[in-house]
Amino acid sequence: MQERSTCSESIIQTTMRPTNVAVILLFTFLLSSVNSEDPYRYLTWKVTYGDIYPLGVKQQGILINGQFPGPQIDAVTNENLIISVYNYLREPFLISWNGLQHRRNSWQDGVFGTSCPIPPGKNFTYALQVKDQIGSYFYFPSLGMHKAAGGFGGIRIWSRPLIPVPFPPPAGDFTILAGDWFKLDHHRLRRLLENGHSLPLPDGVLINGRGWNGNTFTVDQGKTYRFRISNVGLTTSINFRIQGHKLKLVEVEGSHTLQNTYSSLDIHLGQSVSVLVTADQPVKDYYIVVSTRFTRQVLTTTSVLHYSNSRTGVSGPVPPGPTLDITSSVFQARTIRWNLTASGPRPNPQGSYHYGLIKPSRTIMLANSAPYINGKQRYAVNSVSYSAPDTPLKLADYFNIPGVFYVGSIPAYPTGGNAYLQTSVMGANFHEFVEIVFQNWETSVQSWHIDGYSFFVVGFGSGQWTPESRAKYNLRDTVARCTTQVYPKSWTAIYMALDNVGMWNIRSENWERQYLGQQLYLRVYTPSNSWRDEYPVPKNALLCGRASGRHTRPF
């Protein structure tokens, strides 16, 4: 367990004399100016290959500072993170930050639509700010199938000291990065996809990079602990539970929730949640269980919840979880609500933002499909299967490079036509308030993520969405998050305020589907050309493709 880090300020004591009063006043002014800026944290990461044995078989993993999973990031609301990443792999590398909003700064998003990869043997320094955010997130490698080899880690954003949190400080804070895992290395998985094949079934499930009983979480009887769980897998939803213990949900991707209690929780691809667990059972060890959801072959793994004075190991059968049942998952999802009276990253209550009173300026419908194009398996949105360009979209936009993409290259509604390849970019205007409907006519659960934003999941239902479906919306206390599921042959609707200028990735969190085209970019545009609305290109931005040889800015 990593303890929360704190920011301290140095105290300077000075004996005042008449001759140095002016100097002291000047120094005090300068010091106050420096301290008024949000604090900085500096991290240096070395990305390497390394041998890992997550399922008992030697594999080539991607390590950060020799660790699998990578090091945890801790930050306090509004802090700046300066992360220097050195790429010692034999291939280009990019890191993205699942859930961080990068206010006015999509340059730092770490996906190929915004950033050039870090070449082998080179480095790049990310400059991130966790502006107006709290909560539980994770980072991951975004290129190719690198995510299948590791390179991911947890992110905890703590509330500022004077901002009230709607539960007492827990006795400890644990991060659980769970998800399905393949024994095939990421190169072979990528070749399978590029040759038009689907991925095989996963070989197992990991908790923090290890298999059965590979981790132990030690607790004291009678105390309460926070568990932050993220689904970092590639293809499947998971269910999380702890033998004999209840899970009190308190946070979902930066939103404090109503504190409902569950025996287990479904966590879909790319999602993160926080629960409180009280060690209120007899002194012994208990199973922590993660299993796959909606798969006919259920994969399961365990860790150990160890009471500090226990001399009795885990025993009995591993507690079973839900498997194929959709209805229970839908019911549970409907119970996850916003805590209207709790503060978020700011002192005002979350419920002071009345999203349900704002009328959307337009409706966008995004329908996923699984077509074959040129004889190969692809995935598409509104019949468009995303084809990556040779130059990051954000750079092409900034330098006005023609021929890389055009705005409107994907329709805002399903067309029903034949699927085709295209670099799909949808246009939108700064300060629009939009309704987005994710329509899923397939038989698998979909998981959608939007970079740069948190949105309100106002409704979901079965069948085809129609304007009459709005009668079922929750316009009062639905949760705000950045990743949402869409159940089979169903729809999910969200409201989103476009208050963050930039080029933002909308993608499937199923990595096979994302890699083979189920993604697009939303270009949120303003003509103002003001730093107030969007930061300029970073002076250290890597340039590649048709942006090579150009210049960023001198300062």
UniProtKB/TrEMBL annotation:
Molecular function GO terms recorded: copper ion binding; oxidoreductase activity
Domain of life (superkingdom): Eukaryota
Alphabetic keyword roster: Glycoprotein
PANTHER family noted in UniProt: L-ASCORBATE OXIDASE HOMOLOG ISOFORM X1, MULTI-COPPER OXIDASE
Cross-referenced SUPFAM superfamilies: Cupredoxins
Full protein name: L-ascorbate oxidase
UniProt keyword Glycoprotein, yes or no: yes
Gene3D superfamilies in the record: Cupredoxins - blue copper proteins
Pfam family, one: Cu-oxidase
Family named by the database record: Belongs to the multicopper oxidase family.
